[in-house]
Amino acid sequence: MAEIRWTYEAELWLKDIYEYIALDNPTAAEQVIDGIYNKAQILKDHPELGHKYEAPEKEDVRILLYGHYRITYVILNNRIDILGVFHGSLDIDRYL
């Protein structure tokens, strides 16, 4: 079983997502953040579940989908580093 580590940047993305949704609906914001977190926990047992990010210089980055969000991560030995959580409407190339 792999250990999951959320990078500082990934935590900032989650905070931003929460704050944006909470402006209209704090309960929904909590549900979305919990859903993203719980989806990422699947990676403990299935680290290669996400698809590979198709960029030559970023060959180790993988993406796991949760609703409209993309959870980006890398597998490092027995650890998974969550790099960020991006809304599907964002140009992910600008951030990775």
Summarize the structure.
The chain has 96 residues and is of the alpha+beta class.
Account of the protein in words:
By secondary structure, this protein is an alpha+beta fold. The chain has one domain (about 5-90): YaeB-like fold (2-Layer Sandwich). The protein is built from 2 helices and 5 strands; from the N terminus they run βααββββ. The protein has helices at about 10-20, 25-40, and strands spanning about 5, 50, 60-65, 70-75, 80-85. The chain has a 5-stranded mixed beta sheet. Helix 1 (about 10-20) runs antiparallel to helix 2. The two termini are about 25 Å apart. The mean pLDDT is about 90.
**Runs with pLDDT <50, length 5+?**
none
Number of helices: 2
The largest beta-sheet arranges its strands as 1-5-4-3-2
CATH fold category name: YaeB-like fold
Task: Classify the helix fraction into a percent range.
Answer: 25-40%
| CATH secondary-structure class | Alpha Beta
* Integer average pLDDT: 88
Could you give the count of β-strands?
5
Percentage of residues in DSSP E strands: 25-35%
User: What characteristic shape results from the CA principal axes?
Assistant: globular
Biggest beta sheet attributes: 5 strands, mixed
H/E order of the elements?
EHHEEEE
CATH superfamily: RelE-like
Note the main attributes of this structure.
alpha+beta; YaeB-like fold; 5 strands
Give the helices and strands, then pairings.
Elements: E1 3-6, H1 8-22, H2 26-41, E2 51-52, E3 61-66, E4 69-76, E5 79-87
Parallel strand pairs: 1-5
Antiparallel strand pairs: 2-3, 3-4, 4-5
Helix pairs in contact: 1-2
